[in-house]
Design a protein that fits this description.
Pdz3 Domain, globular, alpha+beta, six-stranded mixed beta sheet
């Protein structure tokens, strides 16, 4: 069926010309730039997949799935597709990229002709997403605006005014001005409320609205009006946007006289540089062993994971390898030099939110018996993506290879069940982390059982199983704590507290964080105020219940349970005060003091780390003697 048959008057001006494009693909050049770009983008995506995807692909399946996405996007109840170019049950033979493109072009123009009110750009995106869904969960389409934001995060900086904020009671509230940024230099403080941006009311803004208004090109200016605690008159600031660093080390500090703690939240362009700076600082404070926290770290740049891994090993240690059906993506990576902490005892903390680059680092440390991995089984993402820009500034992220740990383990968990099952697999794991690990190991086939350098058994096919499994702390009911967080009572409480007591608080504590950390306590008036704020949000304290119950937005709890559990709430608010007064890095020491059962258990394992090191050294001596 020819394209010409379906050209309606509104498309009659489109001139269809055939020309050889790239590898013999006929590119249709139309005068309507939107249609031209959409068709070009579709072809770009298919070519990127065919040329780079790590596994086997079928052009016919890719085309068929893209057509299904196009049809579903129409959302027409009485849609007739039989015998038309959008007939998803009668797919013509697709032998090459030319066939796939020409068939999609025919379907595209049929829809544009018969459904002129439809947004063809959105339908093209729907087709692309549907096409990619048959690959793996990490091969995805990324819209242009999202591409810019994600790239900023991975580059480790963005351009803007430099604040961390929350929307509290419909008002933009400054949590902290980023140190050294434009807002910090002008004296903008935690607790300030932004009420106008460029003379327009900012009340009721969403997070996205704030980012759109306050981020911008370096050198441009924005006017904001701020209400400051105990000051009824707004203060106007004219802020010149600048480069704002995005740190990937949440916190580093000494846990005790010997133990340094570093928490990495993701692997971006600046991570290795931040890590070395943190190590150097902690060494100056006396660190001779390291607790590396990668819980909740979703990964990021492979190059940064390799750079971090390298710091734990001597020169020429195998760190990771990648394999693909394309030889250019196969590589084996070894350390190029002696690492900064190659002789330092290490414990790595992981959980079900640790993925990708986090698993590369923890897998290398475990495979070489370099330290202990502690926590819960990791996510299980062992695929490597490459991002390719498309004609309109959007991007497609294609899985180009899969990585293997030094022992040859594939960490990637199965994804045959579909993207939703894959994403929520961790929810189906046993709530008992020990039982989850035991069940997983019982089901691991012999082909996925490997040995570390010293001969310990380790496992592939579903994340990193820790050497020591630590349960998530479930000894305390989360109801009261969650009720506070959901209703944002903690933010409102801390904001009001600093409004009333900010000057006195800073005079007493700002010069000595460690004293605040160890000595600060909430007084009885604070405790009474918190209870009244929780009651205002729907908390009911009654002896008519024996355990906390939730009905709509109402939480019922008895007085004894409230007294037993409220320390969690006050711990969170103490951490929030630390964030607002000293900055985000100071939030985590307080959180760890109150909530970090895994960290407390890991601190008991340094003797086991020493034993592992001795065992690995003995095995190395035996192996050398055997080879000689």
């Amino acid at each position: 069926m020819s394209v010409k048959k379906f050209l309606a008057p509104q498309l009659a001006t489109l001139l269809i010309l055939s020309a050889v494009w790239l590898a013999g693909v006929d590119k249709v050049v139309v005068k309507n730039e939107i249609h031209q770009d959409n068709l070009h983008k579709y072809l770009q995506v298919q070519r990127r997949v065919i040329d780079n995807y790590f596994g086997d692909t079928s052009l016919e399946e890719l085309y068929q799935k893209s057509l299904v996405g196009l049809v579903k996007g129409l959302e027409e109840e009485d849609l007739i597709i039989t015998g038309t170019p959008i007939d998803t049950l009668n797919i013509p033979e697709i032998q090459n990229l030319r066939d796939s493109y020409n068939r999609f072009e025919e379907a595209y123009l049929y829809v544009a002709n018969n459904y002129p009110d439809k947004n063809m750009s959105k339908l093209t995106e729907r087709s692309i997403r549907s096409m990619l869904s048959i690959l793996d969960p990490h091969s995805v389409y990324i819209e242009r605006d999202d591409s810019e934001r994600i790239q900023e995060e991975f580059d480790g900086k963005f351009q803007g005014i430099g604040i961390q904020f929350n929307i509290i009671q419909d008002t933009i509230t400054v949590i902290t001005a980023i140190s050294g940024g434009p807002s910090d230099q002008l004296g903008i403080m935690s607790g300030d409320r932004i009420i106008t941006i460029d003379d327009s009311s900012a009340i009721g803004y969403t997070n996205e609205d704030v980012l759109r208004k306050l981020r911008g090109q370096k050198g441009t200016k924005v006017n904001i009006d701020i209400l400051r605690p105990r000051n009824s008159n707004p203060v106007r600031f004219t802020i010149e946007r600048d480069d704002i660093p995005l740190t990937t080390i949440d916190s580093h500090y000494m846990l005790d006289d010997n133990t340094g703690y570093i928490k990495i939240n993701r692997f971006a362009a600046t991570t290795h540089r931040e890590f070395i700076a943190s190590v150097d600082d902690l060494k100056e404070q006396g660190m001779n062993r390291l607790m590396l926290d990668m819980r909740g770290n979703p990964g990021g740049y492979l190059s940064q994971a390799i750079a971090i891994s390298e710091e734990f090993f001597p020169r020429n240690t195998k760190l990771v390898s990648t394999e693909s059906r394309h030889a250019r993506f196969n590589q084996e990576v070894t350390s190029r030099r002696d690492g900064a902490v190659k002789d330092m005892p290490v414990i790595v903390l992981v959980n079900e939110g640790s993925a990708s680059a986090s698993e590369i680092v923890s897998g290398a440390i475990q495979d070489h018996d370099r330290g202990l991995v502690v926590g819960r089984r990791t996510f299980g993402k062992g695929l490597v993506q490459q991002q390719y820009e498309l004609i309109d500034g959007s991007n497609v992220r294609v899985t180009i290879s899969r990585y293997l740990t030094p022992s040859g383990r594939l960490i990637q968990k199965p994804f045959d069940g579909g993207s939703e099952d894959y994403a929520f697999e961790i929810r189906h794991r046993s709530s008992d982390a020990t039982m989850d690990a035991s069940n997983f190991l019982d089901e691991v086939p012999d082909s996925l059982r490997f040995s570390t350098k010293a001969g310990r058994q380790v496992f592939g096919g579903g994340g990193i199983v820790p050497d020591f499994v630590v349960q998530e702390d479930t000894t305390q009911s989360p109801y009261l704590y969650n009720f506070m967080r959901i209703n944002r009572v903690d933010f409102n409480f801390v904001r009001d507290y600093l409004d009333r007591n900010g000057d006195q608080f800073r005079n007493n504590w700002e010069s000595d964080f460690n004293a605040f950390r160890s000595d600060f306590e909430w007084n009885e008036d604070d405790k009474s105020l918190l209870k009244s704020m929780l009651v205002d949000q729907g908390l009911v304290i009654t002896d008519d219940v024996t355990e906390p119950t939730i009905d709509d937005n109402e939480l019922k709890i008895d007085q004894a349970s409230y007294d037993e559990l409220s320390w969690l709430n006050f711990g969170q608010m103490k951490a929030e005060i630390a964030r607002q007064v000293w900055g985000t890095e100071y939030f985590y020491p307080i959180v760890n003091d109150y909530f970090n059962e895994t960290l407390r258990e890991a601190m008991k394992l340094w003797d086991e780390v020493e034993q592992l090191e001795a065992f690995a050294q003995r095995q190395a001596t035996i192996n050398v003697g055997f080879r000689n």
